[in-house]
């Protein structure tokens, strides 16, 4: 036998019935994005490496440690599997001049790739759903995106998610804060770990995001960026807060919230939970007004967020939210292969009428016994079994047996009457289990 080939570590198959949970989430997202007037965008999984180096930041963990990058053997291009999608969306908007006639509200879903240690809710191929609003400068759109995410938690039945806010101000404000931050950490260099020392002069803001408990004290005593914000930055932040307050959205101001990507300015936010351990951030984002220029476009403001699909589904599971799983309405029991042409034609008519219909199919050992077919009909979750027996078919009929109401009631119906029966069944029979 040939050696068995397995999936790449950290890149997982999504199998039934779990795939139905993904479809459930995706359907809710599609509906919600439409109600907020966000339109779908789909970008390539492969991009030029320079896009992420320039857009995300050369000294971020993603670029330094986590990207799947390689040289194209055919033409020598430096390419990378996208580690996130905001830079790709901005590249697409810039390349196709989508902002020529005003701002755009866009959303996406798809796989991203980062080479990190696989753990619960965090994989090397992971999936994100994101919303981006480009061309809008005011805090009203920042608030709209937060309201959109909050509406999603409600639609998913999630209650144990809280919002944290901060403002990173503008580049000049961050530059002054950076100088004070470096001076502070230099005074306490003996308390920095190796990662903190490495970041001290390249990206000191990221030291504030450390998870090392030994550095908690020196981080807590560091200068706060909020204290360096100018009038315009504070007005933007207060405008966002006012809209959230008016809509009853609770939040906590977290002055240590800095996000892991270099392109953010002004508003940044995270939705977090305590139910997933160290992987508590389920959705995060903020404003990135300078990213379009960094990628080569004309100056334009932008704001957005992304959520981790695996983490959200883990949280749904953790909270015990019931998820409807698709099941067939009818299951065809076919005792004799000679009945297959009629059975298939009938099931096709029922599907055309809107029902979900599953046929019992033969294996290498044949169709199996009548009893085994009924066991599979019951296991399928179908509401009714349709029995295509020889005697019934000779009369132009099919036996309909109830599988879900406990009665086990059986009736016979004319084949010509099944389409009308299907119409009544659609309005009364359960579509999910």
UniProtKB/TrEMBL annotation:
Keyword Transport: no
NCBIfam families: hisS
Pfam family, any one: tRNA-synt_His
Catalytic activity entry: tRNA(His) + L-histidine + ATP = L-histidyl-tRNA(His) + AMP + diphosphate + H(+)
Protein name, as recorded: Histidine--tRNA ligase
Superkingdom to which the source organism belongs: Bacteria
Domain Aminoacyl-transfer RNA synthetases class-II family profile, chain residue ranges per copy: 25-335
Subunit structure and binding partners: Homodimer.
Gene: hisS
Family classification: Belongs to the class-II aminoacyl-tRNA synthetase family.
Entry EC no(s): 6.1.1.21
Keyword Phosphoprotein applies: no
Keywords from the named record: Aminoacyl-tRNA synthetase, ATP-binding, Cytoplasm, Ligase, Nucleotide-binding, Protein biosynthesis
Major subcellular site: cytoplasm
InterPro entries: aa-tRNA-synth_II, aa-tRNA-synth_II/BPL/LPL, Anticodon-bd, Anticodon-bd_dom_sf, His-tRNA-ligase, HisRS-like_core, HisRS/HisZ, HisRS_anticodon
A GO MF term: histidine-tRNA ligase activity
């Amino acid at each position: 036998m040939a050696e068995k080939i397995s999936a790449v570590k950290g890149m997982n198959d999504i199998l039934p019935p779990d795939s139905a949970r993904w479809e459930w989430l995706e359907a809710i997202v599609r509906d919600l994005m439409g109600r907020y007037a966000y339109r779908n965008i789909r970008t390539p999984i492969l991009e030029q490496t320079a896009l992420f180096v320039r857009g995300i930041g050369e000294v971020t963990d993603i670029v330094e440690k986590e990207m799947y990058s390689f040289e194209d053997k055919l033409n020598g291009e430096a390419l990378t599997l996208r580690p996130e999608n905001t830079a790709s969306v901005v590249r697409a908007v810039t390349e196709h001049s989508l902002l020529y006639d005003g701002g755009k509200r866009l959303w996406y879903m798809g796989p991203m790739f980062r080479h990190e240690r696989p753990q619960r809710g965090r994989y090397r191929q992971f999936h994100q759903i994101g919303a981006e609003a480009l061309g809008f400068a005011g805090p009203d759109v920042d608030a709209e995106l937060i309201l959109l995410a909050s509406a999603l938690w409600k639609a998913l039945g999630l209650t144990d998610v809280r919002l944290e806010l901060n403002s990173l101000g503008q580049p000049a404000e961050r530059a002054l804060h950076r100088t004070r931050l470096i001076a502070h950490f230099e005074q306490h260099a003996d308390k920095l770990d190796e990662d903190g020392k490495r970041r001290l002069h390249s990206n000191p803001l990221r030291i504030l995001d450390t998870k090392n408990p030994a550095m908690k004290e020196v981080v807590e005593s560091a200068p706060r960026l909020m204290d360096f914000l100018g009038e315009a930055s504070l007005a933007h932040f207060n405008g966002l807060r006012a809209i959230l307050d008016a809509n009853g959205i609770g939040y906590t101001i977290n002055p240590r919230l800095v996000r892991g990507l270099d392109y953010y300015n002004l508003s940044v936010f995270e939705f977090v939970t305590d139910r997933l351990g160290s992987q508590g951030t389920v959705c995060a984002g903020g404003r990135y007004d300078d990213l379009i220029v960094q990628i080569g476009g004309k100056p334009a403001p932008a704001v957005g967020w992304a959520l981790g699909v695996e983490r959200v589904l883990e949280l749904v599971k953790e909270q015990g939210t019931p998820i409807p799983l698709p099941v067939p309405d009818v299951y065809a029991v076919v005792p004799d292969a000679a009945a297959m042409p009629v059975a298939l034609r009938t099931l096709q008519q029922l599907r055309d009428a809107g029902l979900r219909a599953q046929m019992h199919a033969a294996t290498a050992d044949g169709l199996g016994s009548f009893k085994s077919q009924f066991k599979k009909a019951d296991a399928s979750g179908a509401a009714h079994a349709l029995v295509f027996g020889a005697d019934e078919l000779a009369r132009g009929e099919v036996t309909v047996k109830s599988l879900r109401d406990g009665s086990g009631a059986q009736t016979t119906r004319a084949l010509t009457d099944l389409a009308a029966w299907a119409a009544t069944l659609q309005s009364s029979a359960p579509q999910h289990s």
